[in-house]
Protein 1
Amino acid sequence: MSEFDYVTAMDPEALRRDYPIGDAFRRALVGLSRDELRARQERDFRRVLDFAWKVPFYRRLWGAKGIEPGDIRTLDDLPKLPSYDKADIMQSVADHPPLGDFHGQDAHPADRRPQIIFHTTSGTTGKPQPLLFGPRSREVQNRLLARQYLMAGMTRDDVVHSVYGHGLINGGHYVRETVQHWVGARFMSAGTGVETRSAQQIFIMREFGATAIIGFADYIKRLSEVAREEGFEPGRDIPIRLICAHLGSESQASLSAAWGGAAVFDWYGVGDTGIIAGEFPDRTGMHVMEDAHALEIADPDTGLPVAPGRLGDMVCTCLFKDDIFPIIRFNTHDVTEEVTGESPLGLPFRRIRGFLGRSDNMVKLRGINLFPTGIGALLVEQCEAATGEFICRVHREGARDAMTAHLEVRGTPDGALKDRLEAALKTRLGIEIAVALEAPGALAALTQVESRQKAIRLVDERR
């Protein structure tokens, strides 16, 4: 039997050729036409589709809709296929424990069967979901994220402080592999505030010379406050120059200011797919990694493509996952919209605005769709004294539904600020939302910002 280990299965030379990073990325992709990119996408889609037909989950999902091999030939046919989401994956796990039947390990010959790299989601919205990768798909994801980090300016000389969670959770391991395997920077895996308490994180960053922070913006912002509480000035005593974060409701300007003017870059991805899109130095939206993904933006109600400039669910097809877990039309239920116009960098990739909320965390209030993260971002944008921490509470007032947005602010707030923020929400959203101003730290027990990968931003008291 021939030796078939992780390195052999990942095929490093093919990875470097097919998914370039750094200067090689610019040389390979800048100036590439949309037609040339589409030809590559179609080639890779056919390979992933052929593999998916060997996976029981997809045969069952597509067979239930009367779809047979040969019915789907090109990416134009994608809308004919049903999308699926986390609930379908969890049902597969329940029916076929412990890993479900959505992996295709058994589709490979016994002597060429890739190992399964196993992680889970954080479980912040329920039972953790198994996340399954093969060596090749794992390292493609890692190289795509390395592409983002390098485009943002990370170098081998950086000392990278990571506040992603570890344990079985995918995030911390994913970014560690990226930085260590493909960027080459020194990596410090601090984790969340539960794994390494916040004051100790500040000590570690100062002691070992951290120059970059990666993680979720909520907690990165919180660390800047802890640094000041410990008597250190972010940006001077802890000279962070680069932050690569999932911004959510936090603005780039406020996060940069919190860390003494560090450059801040946003990116988007989910545990199943890895990075899907990232912000490059042009700052004109997030470039979708279309050499690896086909991204649809679909109406949450109908599932049909939305018009340009309209909000919709991101439905992702991974064009590289043909070793363990193929992903074809996975509905993330994360909401975005497309950015129109040509890329200033000369890249053939489409751009999106990034994560704007979740359609399954959307609140319909008196006929208007509201996203808590969008409300929080608007409040922080309008209030210089805001710490960035907020939570939206939906409740009943007599016979109607109502929302109160709680926002942490520094200093002594007055009624004029509250009135101004409520007026801004009404003007921008077209509906009355009450604002409650809270002292710094007052919402921590509700948002669980120091203990969760993703802070809680909505409490629905009607349920």
Note: The first strand starts at residue 117 and ends at 120.
Protein 2
Amino acid sequence: MKVACLGPEGTFSEEAATQYFNPVELELIMYETIPDVIEAIGESHVDKAIVPLENTIEGTINMTIDSILSYDSLSIEGELKLPVSLHLLGNRNASTSDINEVWSISPILTQCRKYIRQHKIKSLQHDSSASAATLLKQSGRMDVAAIGSQSIANLLDLDILERNIQDNPDNETRFIVISKDRHRDIETHKAMFVITPDQEQAGVLSSILNVFSALEINLSWIESRPTARKLGTYRFFLEANSKSSEQTIEKATKILETLGHEVRIIGRWN
């Protein structure tokens, strides 16, 4: 089974993939960016994809949810929560006192915001933590460090200059598995709705939430994102976190559509 994930070797996405899927059946196909990973499944180049959705510190990974909406056929079918420990990585014999710039992917830099600010060092975004570490190794620079995992340090023979520099010691990232399989179980624990209101008006979000409340559907995650149609217009991502039958989900959808809203379900999973 071909599975797309963010590469190169040593990313947390790779670690999540190897934990979620059966390694005997797994053929990992690595891509340079998260949008590239989602494009791979959207264009049917792979069977499934695994991408980060949210993090304890940073919150929602916006490039993930925005990219998913680019394809009507994609559906979330599972998830994995991965503990994330972030370390300052340097070339052999580098010293922490000489570091004046750090490299990594944007979400990881955000997760280490306090450390970067306290040490008054610059940050430079890369497509992944592994690509940042690889470029650091190739450069041989002693004044730059990468932020990444223990596994990428081992893979590239980099020194760990300082351990666990993330803002929260209990840092976790939630990964979602995406496919084109729209099979629905009779009863699942979670479902993800994308609702685009018919028009902007006072109380529109409240009226949407009332539908879920009336049907006793518990919502655990709400996110708003621009529709990209007009400034000031938004769509809502809502995650139902309770056992809901297919009939209940369909009923919620029909009521919301009757109210004039555009509704899309982008996943049901356990």
Note: The chain has a mean pLDDT of 92.
